[in-house]
Write a structure and sequence with these properties.
Blueprint (H helix, E strand, L loop, with lengths): L1 H34 L7 H14 L4 H14 L29 E3 L4 E3 L1 H13 L3 H6 L10 H11 L4 E2 L7 H15 L9 H5 L4 E3 L2 E3 L5 H4 L5 E6 L4 E3 L1 H11 L10 H14 L3 E2 L2 E4 L1
Parallel strand pairs: 6-9
Antiparallel strand pairs: 1-2, 3-8, 4-5, 6-7
Bound molecules: heme C.
The site of heme C has 25 residues, from helix 1, helix 8, strand 5 and helix 10.
């Protein structure tokens, strides 16, 4: 563990410089995104991958997983209700395997929901969390990891090593996929970017960051794998919804409001594209 800690610190130092690059590249992203299209992973990316593999043996995400489990199992709402009544799609209270079967249609709300949205829905409904408070700080920062992020991490961990199988049976599930596909290709904004501008071809890169081609099943998995992810540069957990919002920012679009239909649709599109592959559980992201 001591040795690991050393690695962790070394990695943190390394990723701090990544962060600086990332910020710079975020500012200068548009020209870079068009320019670089090398075939191989960058050297820095390869180094980062090595660190990540070592760190995942003692994944700090487990701390949040434990906190989320405690909330799921023990917390009671003002009316004595609990998460045991929450149906994530496989029956009330069933957590095992639920994560890899979302986004899916939920008849009680007449909507397709992704995992994050469903968990938050249940926390509001059964535990009495306030939607306004959650919207005030939907994502973690250095000061605070909101409870719902821990619960999402717990729920995700309960699908570790299971096959991704987002359903496409209900018409609304099919509709969500199609809308997501459209949003992915939709170009607009000051640089006329779509998601596909950065993630629609092989081998694109911004500075040290390799950009997955999310239209291909074997790379679409990256929209799923490692999320929720422990972000080494900040030391907190971030969710898929955070990733989506941050990419809207990269795209110079207005950020969607938290838990919006368009994000569920994008996640449906990318998850269905990744169907059949194995989810390894919450991970580590730079
Ligand atoms: C200007 C370029 C750009 C645009 C446009 C863009 N992204 Fe990204 N995207 C990035 C960068 C940079 C990363 C971070 C890659 C890394 O961390 O290695 C990223 C990461 C991601 C990831 C996570 C990949 C992983 O390995 O975890 C997903 C999923 C994603 N983007 C989806 C989208 C979607 C959906 C859109 C459209 C709403 C979009 N992106 C638009 C640049 C972009």
């Amino acid at each position: 563990m001591k040795q690991r800690l050393g690695m962790l610190l070394a990695a943190a130092a390394l990723t701090t410089s990544f962060a600086v690059h990332a910020q710079q590249s975020a500012k200068k992203a548009p020209p870079a995104a068009k320019a670089a299209a090398p075939a191989n992973k960058s050297e820095v990316s390869k180094e980062f991958e090595k660190f990540r593999e070592v760190l995942e043996e003692d994944n700090p995400a487990e701390l949040y997983e434990a906190k989320g489990e405690d909330i799921w199992k023990n917390k009671k709402g003002p009316n004595g209700t609990s998460m045991a009544q929450c149906d994530l799609g496989l029956g009330a209270g069933v957590v095992k395997g639920a994560y890899v079967h979302m986004p899916r249609y939920f008849a009680d709300v007449g909507q397709v929901m992704d995992a994050e949205r469903r968990v938050v829905h249940c926390m509001i409904k059964y535990l009495g969390y306030s939607e306004a408070d959650i919207r005030k700080q939907p994502f973690s920062n250095v000061n605070k990891t909101p409870d719902h992020v821990s619960v999402i991490t717990y729920v995700a961990a309960q699908s570790r090593n299971m096959k991704i199988a987002a359903p496409q049976k209900h018409p609304k599930e099919i509709e969500a996929y199609n809308i997501g596909k459209e949003i992915f290709a939709y170009r607009a904004g000051p640089y006329d970017f779509s998601c596909a501008s950065c993630h629609g071809e092989d081998g694109k890169r911004i500075r040290t960051q390799d950009l997955p081609n999310l239209r291909k099943p074997d790379e679409a998995i990256r929209a799923y794998q490692g999320w929720p992810g422990y972000r080494m540069t900040g030391g907190f957990m971030l969710t898929q919804q955070w990733r989506m919002n941050d990419c809207f920012r990269q795209q110079r679009f207005p950020e969607p409001s938290y838990l919006s239909d368009s994000i569920t649709a994008l996640l449906a599109y990318m998850t269905v594209t990744a169907n059949g592959q194995t989810y390894k559980g919450p991970g580590i992201k730079r």
